[in-house]
Amino acid sequence: MFELIRRMKERDEKGFTLVELLIVIAIIAILAAIAIPQFASYRARGIESSMVADARNIATSLEAAFADCQAYPSLAATAGPAAPTLTAPTGCTATMPTVNISSGNTVTVTGGTTFTITVDNANARSGRSPVTMTNAGGATTCTWADGSNC
């Protein structure tokens, strides 16, 4: 091996040997095998964070509307990206807030004396979609599809 390197230097040959190129390819393959699954996990967690953020932002808007109407507004199933206006409860003439829905999320809000917000995303991990946020008796809870808390 050393003899080959010495002869290459004497001839002033430049370049990489096949072995060196194979080693570089192997290193790149190992790094890719580690990075690609991590990237997929980061992406899924980002989607799930957007689902919870949408639910919390809508809950804030619902509470603001409740202060004016003494009832929670509703929203038919709406896919994001969108900024729909909540539907006022029966008998309420107050201006209802608009809510922002992130891309890929589908939101449904059931209002009345309590509220239920459902945020669904087809790209979330198994057991994570939909996210359901409910308010009953003044306590707001957020749960994933698998029953764990958000």
TrEMBL record:
Residue stretches spanning the membrane: 21-40
Entry GO terms, CC: membrane
Keyword Transmembrane (UniProt): yes
Topology with respect to the bilayer: Single-pass membrane protein
InterPro entries: N_methyl_site, Pilin-like
UniProt entry keywords in alphabetical sequence: Membrane, Methylation, Transmembrane, Transmembrane helix
Cell location: Membrane
Gene3D superfamilies referenced in this protein's UniProt entry, alphabetically: Glycoprotein, Type 4 Pilin
Annotated source species: hot springs metagenome
Main subcellular location: membrane
Name recorded for this polypeptide: Prepilin-type cleavage/methylation domain-containing protein
